[in-house]
Amino acid sequence: PSHPQRKPKITASRKLLLKSLMLAKAKECWEQEHEEREAEKARYLAERIPTLQTRGLSLSALQDLCRDLHAKVEVVDEERYDIEAMSGMEGRKKMFDAAKSPTSQ
């Protein structure tokens, strides 16, 4: 018994249209999430970082400020490096052990 060719439930053009609509919606959602993350980051930084006041500072005061900022950046870079180095399984154990040790800071 030969069966007549069944028509697809959805045409190829309709399927393509739906795919493009889904991609457009996904892109819109991703952009919205990205904007929200950027806004949250800006809010967080505004809360945590005081505004840098350089107006009226002498050359030596500006140089001192630059040295202080450079030292702070170095500390943060070292901490970031340490965290990245400990991100492996063994590193997580060391970090956990260091956190519960009373001699750690």
UniProtKB/TrEMBL annotation:
UniProt keyword annotation of Transmembrane helix present: no
GO molecular function, one term: actin binding
Any one annotated GO CC term: troponin complex
Record has Nucleus as a keyword: no
Keyword annotations of the record: Actin-binding, Muscle protein
Listed GO biological process terms: cardiac muscle contraction; skeletal muscle contraction
UniProt record similarity statement: Belongs to the troponin I family.
Function, in words: Troponin I is the inhibitory subunit of troponin, the thin filament regulatory complex which confers calcium-sensitivity to striated muscle actomyosin ATPase activity.
Full protein name: Troponin I1, slow skeletal type
Species per Swiss-Prot/TrEMBL record: Canis lupus dingo
Lineage: Eukaryota, Metazoa, Chordata, Craniata, Vertebrata
